[in-house]
Amino acid sequence: MPRTAALKPDQVPAESKPTLDAFTKNIGFTPNMMATFAQSPIAFNAWAALLGALSKALDVKTRDSIGLAVSEVNGCNYCLTVHSFTAQHMARLPADDIILARKGHASDPRRDAAIQFARKVVEARGNVSDDDLRAVRDAGYTDANVMEIIALVAMYSLTNFLNNVFDPEKDFPPVAPAGAI
Fold first, then answer.
1. Which residues contact 157 (CB under 8 A, 6 or more apart)?
2. Structural domains of the chain, ranges and CATH numbers in brackets
3. What pTM was estimated for this model as a whole?
4. Looking at the predicted structure, is the pLDDT value of residue 103 above 70?
5. Helix, strand or coil for residue 36?
C-alpha cells in the first residue's frame, strides 16, 4: 500500500515539471515512482541529472543488469519490475539473463565481473576486498569504469530506498519474488 500519493499532473512542483514531463514523453506514461519522487524538486532533479550522466556509462545490458542485482539485494520490488521490463525491452536481455542478473551474475564473463562487483559493493557497503577490485580490473574494467559501477550502485540504491520507503503502486508487469527465482 503506497505510503504517499503519487502526484497528479496539476500537483507537480514547477521545478520538477520539466523533468517529469521529459520522462513522461520519453516513456509514454508517468511511472508512479517518478510522480512520487517529483514531490522534491531538489532530490528528483539531482537523480535525473545523475541518471542522464550515467546513461553514458558502460553498456545498457551491464547497466540494467547492475540495476537488477542491486535492486534484488536491496529488496526493492518496484525497481525489480522496472529493471526487468527495461532489461527485456530496451537492453534485449533474454529471460535467463534477467534471472542471472538478479542473482548477481551474467552469462557474459565481462558483464558477470561487473555485476558481481556491484553486488559486493552494495552488500559490503563499499568495503570490498583487494581480490574483489582485482577481479573487476582483470575483466577489463578501468578504474574509471569501477567508479561508474559504484555510481550506478549508488543511483540504483537511491531509487530502491525511495521506493522501499514510499512503496508507490507498481505500474510495470510484476516479477516473481526473489525466493521463487
1. 70, 74, 122
2. 14-54 (no CATH), 60-180 (1.20.1290.10)
3. 0.93
4. yes
5. helix
